[in-house]
Structure prediction request, 427 residues.
Amino acid sequence: MEKFIIKGGRRLEGEVVISGAKNAAVAIIPAVILSDEPCVLENVPNISDVSISLRILFEMGADVKYIGKNTVRIDATGIKEPIVPYEMARHMRASYYFLGSLLGKYKCARVALPGGCYLGDRPIDQHLKAFTALGAACAIDRGMVDAQAEMLLGSQIYFDIVSVGATINAMLASVKASGLTIIENAAKEPHIVDLANFLNSMGADIMGAGTDVIKVRGVKKLKGTTYAIIPDQIEAGTYMVAAAATKGNVLIKNVIPKHLESITNKLEKIGVNVEEFDDSVRVSVDGPLVKTSIKTMPHPGFPTDMQPQISTLLTLAEGTSIITEDIFDNRFRYVDELRRMGADIKVDGHVAIIEGVGQLMGAPVTAPDLRAGAALVIAGLAAHGVTEIDDIYHIERGYEDIEEKLRALGADIVKKNIPGAAVRKAL
Ligand code: EPZ
Prediction:
């Protein structure tokens, strides 16, 4: 089992290049199934969620070849069986995108109920509502989701809640359906627009992605394409907060500043300087950090995926900050870990009240999920003394080369293999 060991207290300085977006990549990789020809994906982040997605394709019979560190050629035309078993799906929430893409291509899919970060109850009723509206019969049988249709017919799909995953699955399942599908109350995250752009580059007819009504006119064939995945908004936001927490000065490159607006806006309220350029932002701090209130919301609101990181920054700010988590029921699991480092945070249901303590102290902690793990890395970088973070496999699901990137910015972070740790965990 591996750990990060961080000696905190060093200002981050220099430049960091942001990788391709995890949540776009894990939608676009299954979407290749819909193509009738091979595709080349560029700017693919080298993270474990991507390896799992590619592995699933490979196990189903696709030809998957890396032709550069971040470029993959996928020929999914040889898929034999539209089945994703439990051993594959359990590692990752996004395995449910194989349902939409297999159903869209083969009119049938059998995919194990997904795993991924435990953030509270994460139902898939809206995904099944979309498939059913398109004419599929859906059932859950011994942990597997079965979806089958004689034919998929364009339809009107109204989501009861705004869901990223259900919006993506509705697009995947409808792109080759007959006629027009109208998806209402759709999610508007940048990765939804990226998936639509990818599908359109293969010959799909999708309009309105990025607004709350998406129109998909079904097409018969999709051709091969070469497509570069957008930069990761959350990885960029994480480095922005890390720069701020260490009172550093960092140029964050390969970003789309528009995607970072809600994060930039809150950082500025906290007293952080953010300078925007065409495809980079510079983050620096030259005064005190101050309290603020944050409520997580679907895009373009403040992203839930940045809530643990910015809450960590607020433990270092003056005054009382209030965080309201409106997307997931259980996204404050990092709070107990931060308390071990000296943070003063009270949680009442969906609300966390943070009393700024100015300084954190290094301690042994455990990453409970991906973004919570990133928050603990930030806490460790800013803290006095040594922080040891266990269960870093969560962090590696979503951050390419995190220790190398942080080291290049001046952080003292190493990854250590702790042979006893696995045994300790098993006891
Ligand atoms: C996506 O999860 C992201 N995952 C999450 O990224 C992100 O936190 C989340 O969107 C919100 O932005 C991927 O893109 C792979 P939702 P998803 O469906 O699609 C409820 C990260 O750290 N809901 O938008 O699972 C749900 O319980 C992560 O990178 C239903 O009730 O999120 C939640 O309360 C983790 N029924 C809300 O909607 C459904 O059928 C929003 O969830 C679907 C969702």
